[in-house]
Amino acid sequence: MRFSGLRVLKEGLTGNRGWGPHWRDPAPKPAYDIVIIGGGGHGLATAFYLAKEHGLTNVAVLEKGYLGGGNVGRNTTIVRANYFLPGNSEFYSHSLKLWEGLENELNYNVMHSQRGVINLFHSDGQRDAAARRGNAMINQGDDAELLDREGVRRLLPYLDYDQARFPIYGALHHKRGGTARHDAVAWGFARGASARGVDLIQNCEVTGIDTSGGRVTGVQTSRGAIKARKVAIVTAGRSGQVAQMAGLRLPIESHILQAFVTEGLKPVIDNVVTFGMGHFYISQSDKGGLVFGGDLDFYPSYAQRGNLPTAEHVMEAGMTLMPMIGKARVLRSWGGIMDMTPDGSPIIDRTHIEGLYLDCGWCYGGFKAVPGSGFALAHLLATDRPHDSAAGFRLERFRDGQGLMDEEGTGAQHNTH
Amino acid sequence: MRLSKGGRIDRSRAVSFTFDGRALSGHPGDTLASALLASGQKVVGRSFKYHRPRGVFSAGSEEPNALVTLGAGARREPNVRATMQELFDGLEAQSQNCWPSLDWDLLEVNDLFADFLGAGFYYKTFMWPRKAWEWLYEPAIRRAAGLGALSGQPDPEPNEKAFAHCDLLVIGGGPAGLMVALQAGRAGADVILCDEDHEPGGRLLSEVEEIAGAPAMEWVAATLAELEAMDNVRIMIRTTVTGVYDQGTFGALERVGRHMKHRPGPLPLDCFWRIAAKASVLAAGALERPVAFQDNDRPGVMLAGAMRSYLNRYAVAPGDAVTVFGNNDDAHRTARDLLAAGVHVAGLVDSRPGAATDLDLPFYAGAQVTRASGRMGLEAVSIRTPSGEVKLQSDALAVSGGWNPSLHLTCHLNGRPEWSETLAAFLPRPGVVPGMQVAGAATGIFTTAGCLASGAEAAGKALETLGLSVPPLDLPQAGEQGYGVQPLWAVAGNGRAWLDLANDVTVKDVRQAASENFRSVEHMKRYTTQGMAPDQGKISNLGAMAVLADATGRDVAATGITTYRPPYVPVPIAALGAGGKGKGFAPERLTTSHAQSLAMSAPMIEAGLWYRPSYFPRTGEKHWRQSCDREVAHVREAVGVADVSTLGKIDLQGRDAARFLDLVYTNTFSTLKEGRARYGVMLREDGHVMDDGTTARIGPEHFVMTTTTAAAGEVMGHLEFVSQVLVPGWDVRLISVTEQWAQFAVAGPQSRALLEELLGRDLSDAALSFMGTMPIEIGGVEGRLFRISFSGELAYEIAVPARYGESLFTRLVGMAEARGGGAYGMEALNVLRIEKGFLTHAELHGRTTAFDLGLERWMSPSKSFICKAAASRPGLLAEDRERLIGLRPVGASKMIPPGAFLFNEGDEAVRENAQGYVTSSCYSPTLGETIALGFLKSGPERIGEHLRLVDHLREAVTICEVCETCFLDPEGERTRG
Amino acid sequence: MRMTCPLCGARDLREFTFRGAALARPEGDDWNEAWHDYLHLRDNPAGESREYWAHAAGCGAVLLVTRDTRTHEIFAVEQARGAGA
Amino acid sequence: MAEPMLKAQNALPQGEALVLGDTRIDVLPMPRMTSLMPGPGHAALAKALRKHHGLDLPDPGGRVSSDEGECLWFGLGQYMLIGPAPSPLLAGAATLTEQSDAWTSVLLEGPLARQVLARLTPLDLRDASLPLGATARSEIAHMMGSLTRVGSEAFRLMVFRSMAQTLLHELKDTLEAVAARQAL
């Protein structure tokens, strides 16, 4: 069924009885051409683009729990293309272009809102780094604008320009950046993939990956064995565990990232604001909640919850930067499991096992990558060649040291990002 | 309406307050909600989505409707629960989410269009035209959504955070919690009792109950008196435990100054507590749940237990004719208490077919309320009885669908509750929070007697784990009234029946979500937004799950429940972030020359946590460049003085100190002679440069290392890790001496003469050659002199104990000025180092290798050192890596802004063509031109090439010549003097 | 989270800094699989994990901590010096 | 020789900083402080310290004092000799590092002292875990510090010299807030 304002009107008049399921709930078939492990944003997007771009529909997405229940369902919904290292630049640029067409492509309102991302800087050195980033973005064909202190004041009058511990020198403004309704992204891709014939199978946990003679033959699941010519591991947060089923060790540690949302408030923050010095970023959802977060808790964890020191640090950062949010009340906090790679950049690649593919290591940047990652992995699965936009996301870069993508410059080794 | 007697309010005093500007009055002991009800204010707010009129629904922090805005100006506070706000004289409250007024709200039209605004409608529309989302649809949605509004001004009020430690944390001060505290206190345990209310007692405050043959509150008073007399027991009222964290850490929000008008200036509004407890008992009681039926959100409909609170605790009659509707015996108490208070009860409706009552009132067993009528306030309720439809004229309706144990905190560490068929509720699973017992109604025990017994039992278990002996127990007699709930979630019928009042989620919405295949609880929650409102679904969760279960043909147990996460009640950012405002966010580090620099009106800039002078303006200088150029000239032509104390200084001693340095530095230090210093490069194990600096040998087994200001902490941590983990057997002892020494650079042709005068000794090369160090004495003060240079001039760094720093700085500056020089700041320091091609973290930005920086000669081939293996990876040694070079403009444009990119002449300025980028640049007054450092693919092989520099952001296009990184005196003759 | 430092006793998480998985540093200066393994590859266990933590805001000791990454339960804390990875 | 020319300057004005009721904040004078790091094996240092300064080597978290001075446990493998100039004869048993200027010491004393500290440090300040004479390295208002209980209601706080202003500022604000609470 096609969604539209007219349809909403018609259904409204007829008691909303006509809305069907957004996706089918098929039983798993014994075999597929391609099995995607993980029904999160990336897995669902991969399924969608396999069907749409490559006409491959004998595909199953196996999800341990419910669709979109991983990090795509618990993040701070920021969509941006403001990376500066080759490898990242072209990928996130491509992903953002996909975002810009997503509603029409999916016929699903994911509420992609290009309200602008504003990265503040607080010293001459940071300004120079921001300038390099901004120029790289424009080199890539994306948008960037360098704001001075007064320029920031015009956009964000509510920041503390006099007392903030780290004075506001200016900001890098990325107007095409913004937010989206995270759940809707997963649901939209799921609906699109399902409509094109892909089987989305929930409550189906993969318990083993079958290989023979160095090539993958299928998977064992809580709902029986499923044969497959190609298997893609798209289980950010759990990549290590799933890869282990195929005897792979990955350059990944799982860390927690906390995020927070406040009670609904009338519009007060119109952009995405990030405060690098204090590890704090914030935006306001369309429902009115302030959605914000900070840095990792900085210890490996699968608990999907954090501890107070990081939470407090995030709030303190908010108070020094924009003390007007003091009276907003934190309604919920949660923690996502981040696939942290040594250089803070992801992996979309084949493995030494023929027919086994990886899409992992998204660190805390996975949400905005959803369309780009799905598109690139679909291309790799369909053609066995990396898509141009994701050629830099090699698994081997750590071994050979070529094309490391350490955007933060904190070191291409674990526990520095 | 206020009853003529009863209640825990002080009738002897009146408290005046305003609601939407109307002057009203109540009594001490009232909450804002009870005072509003007493004043006959039925409508207190508008609903989130449909803007329907709403009244007070509960009597606690779970309130979904009665959210108001308090105060005005910067102190204005949105979304305050009227049910939790203690009344005080002069309180000003405004209703929310309505315009132009509470009674006439334009957006109530949403209610007419409800059929088009059902669950998830917005995912299906607003997609055309594409660009319209940002400028048309989204702004409209945002304006309509949200509840209260922030003031937009900085929060002016003080808040605080604190830590507390105890043996046993008791959460909840009802009968169970008090019993726990009493037993544990008597056993000598260190107890903290937190209660959300402003007086302990829990449900006993609201019930007509007896303990030990006397009114229950007498037992509460006696118990509190005994507890308050124990110095091992601490009672924290107005304190809600909001979260459970690892190893017995709890978060709790104390409302310190919210119940008074005139708060003494420094008194915090809230205090956020971090409580560490060896053991804990959760005695948080239970929350009543409603039943869904058509228009069950009308003002005047409230929870049956809440109605008892208003009746018994606040002496407020909810109406003139009240109907009571429930599916359990507990609801009957409401009818009983209403009658006792002389309130007319229109009827008692019990959905249980076999139900009976001995109360003298119209009783309807096996009946259900099908509809509430009355838009701005309840007028009548329709009932479906076995014998047909009945309509009762009522202006208030008490609803009870049963009680849900408040088990939220037991789920914060990922514990899942278990379903109880008999209680039709989820119960806490034992042991899901290490060290936590659960007692009383929180475990599904709903009698006072049972709560007291369960409290005593939980106390016993907790005391055992604490290794304390359990004191003798005398359990007082108490009520054992029945409960006998028979599940009823939603009454069948047409029209909209509300599950989530706060977010306007109806039974229809949940059923529709299920029909659209949002069948898992998480999908339903996210699709309908049920449970995401300020009340966090406290009242609505289970009902919604039950309706979903019904719609999907599962039972509630199989359907499950969404995860409870902290905080249990919403916590102001100002409380969790207390202390962060303004400069409080991070400590400020001041050098010993700080005051003097300010006196010389130097602008101070942040360097990490430090403050350093940017430049020292002199009269007549209008622009920083003028000062900077002068200061550079001082150093190049006379002598300059700069405070370099912020650089990290680490003292290394021990038998293996030299060997240790050989390990952490890429170059060799064991060969360094006593009294000499050497430049060193330190890499991370991953093969990239972490830091650089000079290290001096001041004794056979004694070295002093300097680090950059930025990396001081990281380097110290790294060295500690290496010594304790990688070479634990080596004898090397590390200590930071950064703070012990004030250190000043004295640089320039006249630096030697200046210091010879200061020290009264010969400093010729014979006495102290380049890269030499020696102990010195200044008027009895022992210090140290290093002949090192970050400016390329003849230069020294002189160190004295920090207490003499200010004095020495002042003196050095004076002597420098007398020689035509003076103090110089960060700007000049940066120019001086760029002229020499020296590095800072603009170049050591974490992605560069020694090879990139032209430091490969510092990588000793003859020894092992940290990172040696990783640094030898092919990718880190590729010729075409971006490597350090110098740049100078050769065309018309002289602009070389840092952050600009380099392209071959004629190439388009796009990523694919980028050859490199600029890291540092400055105008060199010495050379009279702009110079820069940057990185360029195969840089060193391209000296002399012309490149096109492009800075899109600042619209600079400059033709540059690639040159050596050292622009001045490459042979270093000036340095050697 | 609270951790019991062998020198200082039970302390709040905020005093400690995670320093990485407890792995033995390879010998030799030549880049090889052992180094790749040490620097990059991880078991990343969902369960018992041996880690280094520094009591950075306390006594400065680097600690060898055995911890469950699913529950954050801490099984053992000892001084890294002398413990050996 | 050059005339005596350098003036000593404490990071904070010495003496009374704030008094509210019976609780007071005083900036202490800068005593002689020497870090003693014995390296592997502490026996030699214990012996030398007793011999030359009449002080026993404290256990972790401990402090030993005499009329002559005090020795403070200061972290892993480190002790702080406070008061006397270190006997050169200690040198064989430990490395000595001058620290007199590195730290600023403030005394917080009075009935509200513990409540003030409860707002600045995560330490358990109850008698059982911080008895009289106990010392701890911990966080004080986001700063690395040293805290020693020098009296039943008296605590000596030490932070790096450069952060002295921040410490004093935090202490004053907190004492005022706690006092305001007390007055309720």
Automatic annotation (TrEMBL), chain A:
This is Sarcosine oxidase subunit beta. It is an enzyme of class 1 (oxidoreductase). It catalyses: sarcosine + (6S)-5,6,7,8-tetrahydrofolate + O2 = (6R)-5,10-methylene-5,6,7,8-tetrahydrofolate + glycine + H2O2; sarcosine + O2 + H2O = formaldehyde + glycine + H2O2. One of its GO terms (cellular component) is cytoplasm. Keywords: Cytoplasm, FAD, Flavoprotein, FMN, Nucleotide-binding, Oxidoreductase. Its cofactor is FAD; FMN. GO terms for biological process: tetrahydrofolate metabolic process. Residues 34-78 form the Rhodanese domain. The keyword Protease does not apply. Belongs to the SoxB family. Transmembrane segments: none annotated. SUPFAM superfamilies: FAD-linked reductases, C-terminal domain, FAD/NAD(P)-binding domain. Its EC number is 1.5.3.24. Its main location: cytoplasm. One of its GO terms (molecular function) is sarcosine oxidase activity. It is found in: Cytoplasm. The keyword Cytoplasm applies.
TrEMBL record, chain B:
One of its GO terms (biological process) is tetrahydrofolate metabolic process. Residues 883-969 form the Aminomethyltransferase C-terminal domain. Residues 495-579 form the SoxA A3 domain. GO terms for molecular function: sarcosine oxidase activity. It comes from the Bacteria. Residues 595-860 form the GCVT N-terminal domain. Keywords: Oxidoreductase. SUPFAM superfamilies: Aminomethyltransferase beta-barrel domain, FAD/NAD(P)-binding domain, Folate-binding domain. Pfam families: FAD_oxidored, Fer2_4, GCV_T, GCV_T_C, SO_alpha_A3. Belongs to the GcvT family. This is Sarcosine oxidase subunit alpha. It comes from Pseudooceanicola antarcticus. The lineage of its organism: Bacteria, Pseudomonadati, Pseudomonadota, Alphaproteobacteria, Rhodobacterales.
UniProtKB/TrEMBL annotation, chain C:
Gene3D superfamilies: Folate-binding superfamily (3.30.2270.10). It holds the Pfam family SoxD. It comes from the Bacteria. Signal peptide: none annotated. One of its GO terms (biological process) is tetrahydrofolate metabolic process. One of its GO terms (molecular function) is sarcosine oxidase activity. InterPro entries: SoxD, SoxD_sf. This is Sarcosine oxidase subunit delta. It comes from Pseudooceanicola antarcticus.
UniProtKB/TrEMBL annotation, chain D:
InterPro entries: TrmE/GcvT-like (IPR027266). It comes from the Bacteria. This is Sarcosine oxidase subunit gamma. The lineage of its organism: Bacteria, Pseudomonadati, Pseudomonadota, Alphaproteobacteria, Rhodobacterales.
